[in-house]
Amino acid sequence: MSDMQYTYLGNTGLEVSRFCLGCMNFGSGADWMMNDRDASLELLDHALDAGINFLDTANAYSRGESEEIVGEAIADRDRDELAIATKVYFPMGDGPNKSGLSRKHILDQARASLDRLGTDYIDLYQIHRWDDHVPIEETLSALDHLVDEGLVRYVGASTMSAYQFTKALYTADVENLERFACMQPEYNAVDRHEEANLLPVCEGEDIGVIPWSPLAGGFLTGKYERDSSIPAGTRAETDKYTSNRFSDENWDVLDEIRDIAEKKDATPAQVSLAWLLHKPVVDAPIVGPRSIEHLDENLAALDIDLTPDDIERIEAPKTPRWPAPGKD
């Protein structure tokens, strides 16, 4: 197993592992989730033992079950070493005030997340999406309050337009409110639309970047084949978002990745993750393995060195543009 590497998140002093463990798989629900609490805890323990100190979950993941599992996993760990991230926005029940980014919902859900995580504070509290119905001043004020109360250390955001993110940063500066320190965008070798949207803002403002879906929902693992039927039990079988990635140019990217992987005695997943790790704007890709074997495979990407020619080959078939075709 590779020795873990660490970096600072954006321009903060928060030290995080170069891989963040995504915890959406922990809980019950869809077939692609682990649906096994004991196995989830075993995987979390293995990740923590391997040096991963950065865990990302959300209140909406299995309606809080993921946070509960994370809380159980970290209960006997050195809390000071860990960076625990969670998110707020999506519905947590039926009826009014159960979703969004109102002051009420944010404050209510922050305390609920703290209870489920079994901790006194959240290291990184992120808005899961932009809320068109709530003034950004209200959202930022609520987040600022949580920081002032010592319940949150840093605040972050995920998945929005560059205009929205820039507006939030400007508003925080003008109103003297807590500024977003981190952005969580979709970013991988076949989903590169953020190179024409959020990533230039993050680079210019020294914002931490922790990409979600670094393996494109499994597409970049190489488990799918061009012109073949989708294997039963895989995510693409039931998730149209994943199957929509099966375009000619994406297959061309994967062909290059497979060839590079073969020459380096690596796997397509490892080369794909190494491509992200070679991006200066990226701090910690969020990996979401469903087994210890997959996690160990992911961690081995830390040892893979890509040449400029390798990177050029991977990037050549795609032209980043916003909005991305087929993305809502």
From TrEMBL:
What's any one GO cellular component for it?
A: cytosol
- Keywords tagged on the record: Oxidoreductase
Alphabetical list of InterPro entries matching this protein = AKR, AKR_Detox_Biosynth, NAD(P)_OxRdtase_dom_sf, NADP_OxRdtase_dom
Highest taxon of the source? Archaea
Q: What molecular function terms (GO) are annotated for this protein?
A: oxidoreductase activity
Q: Does the keyword Oxidoreductase apply?
A: yes
Q: Where is the NADP-dependent oxidoreductase domain?
A: 20-316
Q: What PANTHER family has UniProt attached to this entry?
A: NAD(P)-LINKED OXIDOREDUCTASE SUPERFAMILY PROTEIN, NADH-SPECIFIC METHYLGLYOXAL REDUCTASE-RELATED
Put simply, this protein is called Aldo/keto reductase
Q: Which organism is it from?
A: Haloferax litoreum
